[in-house]
Design brief:
With 210 residues, the chain is of the alpha/beta class. Helix content is 40%, strand content 22%. The chain contains seven helices and ten strands. The protein has helices at residues 3-13, 46-63, 77-88, 129-140, 157-165, 176-185, 191-202, and strands at residues 17-19, 25-26, 32-33, 35-37, 69-73, 92-95, 108-109, 117-125, 144-153, 170-175. Strands 7-6-5-8-9-10 form a six-stranded mixed sheet, with helices on both faces. The protein has a two-stranded antiparallel sheet with strand order 1-4. Helix 1 crosses helix 6 (176-185), helix 2 (46-63) crosses helix 3 and helix 6 (176-185) packs antiparallel against helix 7 (191-202). The protein starts with a helix and ends in an 8-residue tail after the last helix.
């Protein structure tokens, strides 16, 4: 079993990811979706979070070997960034969604100096908006953002375009396509539901179960 499939299976097993193509979930944006992913649940499973941390560390060593600082997005990326920074014996910072409105008004917590090479860790990629903003905040502070490392991506066309347009590298441990394959193999879904799941990824804004 590939590492992508193994991580996807773990996310399904602990119910960090739920699939329901016939009774879709409603996201905060109002969009209907056959999938709901909450990778915060991985914090409660030491073996799973350890495998994720090891996987992210290996991914970073392979694709971003010059990294000097690990950055986590607030809030979901923070614990994973901490575990990865520990494994790689590197400094860590975290990046808020916006600067504080009190104290020093920091958006980045921890010590980040000009020209330091960083990798930003996120738990989940949909359109990529929040992590791209975090990367931009780090760039504004003078950091050299090598790329983004995440646990899972929905592989949405808008997200792919956003990373391409911003010229930001993205590497993930697993993805939506792999998850569907594993879910079918393990009996979480049946063959009749696969088409619905694949259609959503192609055009989530206009997706329908009818």
């Amino acid at each position: 079993m590939t590492n992508e499939k193994r991580i996807a299976e773990k996310l399904l097993t602990i119910k960090a990811v739920s699939l329901n193509p016939t009774e879709p979930f409603i996201w905060a944006s109002g969009m209907k979706s056959p999938i709901y992913c909450d990778n915060r649940i991985t914090m409660s499973y030491p073996a799973v979070r350890r495998e994720i941390a090891n996987g992210l560390a290996a991914l970073i060593k392979q694709h971003y070997p010059a990294v000097e600082v690990i950055a986590g997005t607030a809030t979901a990326g923070i614990p994973h960034a901490a575990w990865v920074a520990e494994l790689l014996d590197l400094p860590m910072v975290y990046i808020r969604g916006k600067a504080k409105d009190h104290g020093k008004g920091n958006q980045i917590e921890g010590r980040l100096t000009k020209n330091q090479k960083i990798v930003v860790i996120e738990d989940l990629i949909s359109t990529g908006g929040s992590v791209i903003e975090a990367a931009q905040a780090a760039t504004n502070e003078g950091a050299d953002v090598l790329g983004v490392a995440a646990i899972f991506t929905y592989e949405l066309p808008q997200g792919i375009r956003n990373f391409t347009n911003q010229n930001i590298s993205l590497k993930t441990l697993t993805n939506y396509s792999t998850l569907i394959d594993v879910a079918l193999e393990k009996g979480y879904i049946d063959a009749s539901e696969v088409t619905l799941l694949k259609d959503w990824k192609k055009d989530p804004q206009h997706w329908s179960i009818n």
